[in-house]
Terminase large subunit
Amino acid sequence: MKQWTTACKDWQKRIVAGRPLIVAPPLFQDESDAALAVFKSLRIVDAAGSPTFGEACEPWVFDFVASIFGAYDPESGKRLIREFFLLISKKNAKSTIAAGIMLTALIRNWRMSAELLIIAPTIEVAQNSFKPAADMVRADEELADLLHVQDHYRTITHRTTGAVLKVVAADNDTVSGKKAAFVLIDELWVFGAKPKADAMIREATGGLVSRPEGFVISLSTQSDAPPAGVFKAKLDYFRDVRDGKIEDMKSLGVLYEFPKAMLESEAYLDPNNFYITNPNLGRSVSREWLEDELKKELAKDASTRNTFLAKHLNVEIGQSHRNNRWAGTDFWSRRAEPDLSLDSLLDQSEVVVVGIDGGGLDDLFGFAAVGRHKETRDWLVWTHAWCHEGVLERRKSIAPMLLDFKRADELTIVDDELADISAIIEIIDTINRRGLLASVAVDPAGLGEMIEALAEIDITQEGGQLIGAPQGWAMMNAIKTAERKLANGTMRHAGSKLMAWCVGNLKIEPTATGVRATKQNAGDAKIDPVMALFDAVTVMSRNPEATGPSVYERRGILVV
């Protein structure tokens, strides 16, 4: 029984040193050699001089191709590594390499009438893979006799086996019922913004169940927005496989991205480091062009700069890439305590302030509990959000991301107009019955139903437990207090990915009298849970005491 690993635990050292990111050699060398012989002979017609892959490519390309085809066991007819993921910067010949790999698979395939698919998110992207493949066939007389190209159908048919390589712009109709043995998905990041992409990809790859020789390859650059949906799921999974957190010998990822330390220090802005995510630097990628473009982007707005960083340097876009971001953003990820739950916050706290914000049918309903630690007096933060299912339709661009947050149990999607209010009231009542609640701080606008529901559990303005938190410029003290406590480490949070996204969406605008918090982009960028946090900070900064039932009442003892 062969033993191998698809992990590359020392990838950070390897990628900086320019060493291979694939640790294990091909499992079946003869298969690898035979496939490489085909692949290396294919011509890149649109490159200067129309060189072959063998003449034009860097070793990393051959390592990747060798691993794919060298994983096939000719005796059993099974491919031992079946899923591959390549994350690489734009213009590193990704689509051309995809064409070469799938053409090699078409030529090497033995199954009669086999289906091979290249799935692209748009017709334009589909053409980026089909045209190089068609050109490779026409540039070689032997291949032109063996393979039949039909441009109007974007198909290439093997005249002997009847196998067909088809390049499709993906939707459920184009991939439904396919029985493809070999599937390549190009620009996976685009599928991340499509709510039904996961189902579509499952449909397209379902044929591998009965075709053990097959493979699935996903290719992508980074997304120009925070990763979401099927792209985020694949990215996270293959990172864990690479890092050895998940042992999956049937999956292999090659991810050209900057090590964490280089991201934190913004070392990716140094042209001397461009090679890290551009292994084709000096071939299909011009360092001089990258330098010139980076200079232009640094003088522009952060939104366009993000696109450059994501596409050409493979930098994952997140909280730290906004030039008008909240100052607390730079410290947010450092203060995460993933084990902090609402229950553990309540156990550790001597007093709790709840903040509430949002709640419209087009918004998130943000909830934040801020507890003051019994011993250290540090602030502990736990957040959650609710939204109505209609938001998934009205805000389709963020629907995959919201579904990710739901799966992480950080967001609850409701179909009952009052279900979110009921859930929030239940949490507040629990905190109050434990004698920990100081108050509930709210944005007074549009919270009529919530205020009525709070009154039913005796949380009222007259009783002193319901407080209208100042908004706009008047919230400046809470904003500044939160960022200072994040900076000095006296405020820690549960590490919610939803909250990290909302923090990244926050924009700080100067006003005549101070600053105010608003959204980076109207509509789709949600910040309600962060605003709920600021509401709670408004009260917690006043050093409140709990005003809920006494310890004797909680034990059922009547004091006269």
Summary: DSSP finds 24 helices and 19 strands in the chain.
